[in-house]
Amino acid sequence: MANAGWRPFLRYDEKQDRPQLSGALLRRAMAYGRPYFGRIAAMLALILVVTLLGLLPPLLVRNLIDQALPQRDMHRLTLLALGMLAVPLVNGLLGVAQRYLGSSVGEGVICDLRTELFDHLHRMSLRFFTNTKTGELMSRMNNDVIGAQRAVSGTIVDVFTNSVMLVSALVIMLKLEWRLTLLAIAVLPLFLIPARLLGKKLRKIVRQQMTLNAEMNAMMDETLNVSGALLVKLFGRGPDEVSRFRGRAESVRQAGVRQAYMMRWFFLTVSLISAVGTVVVFWGGGLLVLRGAGFTIGTMVAFTSYLGMLYGPLSALTNARMDLATSLVSFERVFEVLDLPLEIAERPDAKTLKAVRGTVRFNKVSFSYQPDDAAEEAAAAGLADVVRFGGPRSPAMTAPPLSQEGGKLKTAGARNGNGTPAPQAPAGRTWALRDITFEIKPGQLAALVGPSGSGKTTATYMLPRFYDPTEGTVSIDGHDLRDLTLATLADQIGMVTQETFLFNDTVRANLLYARPEATQEEIEAACRAANIHDFVAGLSEGYDTVVGNRGYRLSGGEKQRVAIARVILKNPRILVLDEATSSLDSQSEALIQDALERIMKNRTSLVIAHRLSTILAADMILVLEAGRLVERGTHAELLAKGGLYASLYETQFRIEE
Predict the structure, then answer these.
(1) Half-sphere exposure of 61 (CA within 13 A, CB side)
(2) 105 within some domain
């Protein structure tokens, strides 16, 4: 929803807009055409042939007027008529082939660019997604990528076609009548004026229009998904949201009107310049005919036809610079995302562990969501976009901002995953975790306990490398997580979060997401272990029942048991669980507790405990307060100390006895 303190992560900044075409940007954009070099070469060859064939009709008309008709030559007349029919027929057939090649190149570039962008986004850290509106990413994936395609398959093709047409027409015109050709060329410098005057403004309008579209898409994504729509209805804010959307849509409309208005002025100016050149040539050509200077009527007709072939492509080439500049805005916006560094990345020599015993160790781990001093200075200088970030149960913390240098968005102060230590945090900053040290032995259950905002979820997010420590190390079997491949962590660590997410697909598809090769027998065994098989089997279509957007056709307990079954099917060695059952009915809670006990057996488990039964079963209880590990031990040991755990036990857990 609307938040005055939130500024877009990927945003338009007029001061950052670079109105000049960049050679490096153009070369990088054109590099996406390399896999299609053969098709591009064939397409350009066809364009050359089609363009040259298009130059023949005026010469045929000239021959008709100056020779066939005056000489009453029937044979020549028939040949000329057949030639006038053959040229468009052949051109049309070649044009079909050219169009096929052009579209295959353009769609191929779109597919490659969109896939690369999708891959890069999925390798971004969790921090990136907490800072970024999904609708803006969708805009980059769709609108901007399509704009990039236009540059490759549209603008570049038009530039080549018009260049060939212009040069060819100019050569023929010089042969027909060099004096008139010089008159026609005299007005050419005037064509540069509208591009100089309007090109920079138009590019800025197009970039702003793309950003406004992204913001509108972000709002639609927030309010039209099932959670957002439910919230709007609960608070009766439908009219307000419509009004807010109308404001966004109005901004997009105004930008579109400004673009159309600017383009109309451009075409008007170019048309007037073409008209001036045409009048000059008509007057000069007519004068030559009247004086009998060897300039025939047929030549005059052909020359005026070629004049259109000169001024038309010239006007298009004048506009091509503007088209290319505005199309490359799309590449700029896509490259901004592709150039974002990976905060959580594999080292080149990362290890793959085939077998994991399950020893988990946190060694002097500290973590903060706040930027370092350098990033704060950049933000103060206007080079960074500081975004408020409410970390896991820590709304007062802020995330590292994104600085923008040379048009590229970068995460300030983020670890790049290449082994370089993260910068030391400045004194006085807010820590989510501070100097945490503990070890969980293979097969043990460790329960995390503490007040809300104490850093429990942040600690669990360290293990699957959703975040890397600002200081210290997290290790599995003695291996620093940053020395292991991300695939190893994904294979060996299973996680059930407090907020269960299911895709809008069948129950089976959601379960197979953990292990695509699993058999139906294995799926059913996992569901039985999670106490959900009988429920799924009783659905109208069984395991082929679609669960709805975010699983909303299922209750909270049913969704969570499906999530548990998904983790069981994965069969990881280490479990990370946020055991949130407080909001469920007693029956669902009992079923989930029974399922959790089964899944944790013989596995190393790190659990945010919400139930006394989990705490009593824990081999070790870790008590966090304000990001620090203040107590550790068994239930009996901690009660005997009479500290924070004893207080939490009295207020939160004793009621279960």
Answers:
(1) 15
(2) yes
